[in-house]
Amino acid sequence: MASAEYVTVRFGGLVAVNDASVPVPEGKIVGLIGPNGAGKTTLFATIAGFQRPNAGRIVFAGRDITRLPPHRRARLGIARTFQIVQPFAGLTVRENIAVGAHLRHVARAEALAAAEAVAQRVGLEPLLDLPAAALTVAGRKRLELARALATEPRLLLLDEVLAGLNPSEVRDMIPVIRAIRDDGVTVLMIEHVMQAVMALAEEVHVLAEGRIIARGAPEAVARDPAVIEAYLGHGAAARLAGAADA
Ligand SMILES: Nc1ncnc2c1ncn2[C@@H]1O[C@H](COP(=O)(O)OP(=O)(O)OP(=O)(O)O)[C@@H](O)[C@H]1O
Fold first, then answer.
1. DSSP code per residue over 75-114
2. Which residues form a coiled coil (predicted)?
């Protein structure tokens, strides 16, 4: 349904993404992993339209969208979350989600109603009337997810939505993300929390120094010693093996 094809992004002399291709089949959860600075966020930004690639193209639903601005892509059905969560602190949770819902619902009452439905999907319903500033980190992550979901995407790009959560909060979020996929939304997720990648992704792409260095089923990638030691850090082999066997 979507793909980054032979994408290169340069920042001055730095090649942040180097000839990287990532296909995202419809209805799947695809993981994008790799060490810090590998180029994951930059590749995401090219898919969402915030970053123009120096080479390569972005295809969505059979159409070359490389030159479309972010808001046009959002309208086509691409939504992303941001690593740094910045809700409108003075607005309520409901109003924050409605900001996303406004893309499809012009009338305020409709957007607010749509926001409620989305809140239910991500477990924020009891908190709808709280100011966003009152949310915990886990709540803010759910709100970030809800704001993206409220745009009614076909492709949802999740940038570390589980970062900063404790293990039980991660466990609580896994079924939420799976349910989004089951509702027909294709998901591409950047994630450092391996337990979640293993549990959720059907296919994983490994980015290191801008290049895709491995791809495949999470278990296969997880057992690739070269990938583990070279790109996920010392000791990752044991952590991944534990997660894959769980
Ligand atoms: N706007 C920019 N201008 C200059 N350099 C940038 C810019 N954005 C990213 N970079 C650099 O490009 C490289 C890739 O960064 P990117 O944020 O895409 O990596 P990442 O894999 O998402 O890392 P992390 O896991 O730490 O978020 C890094 O060396 C980063 O410093």
1. HHTEEE--SS----TTSBHHHHHHHHHTTT--SHHHHHHH
2. none
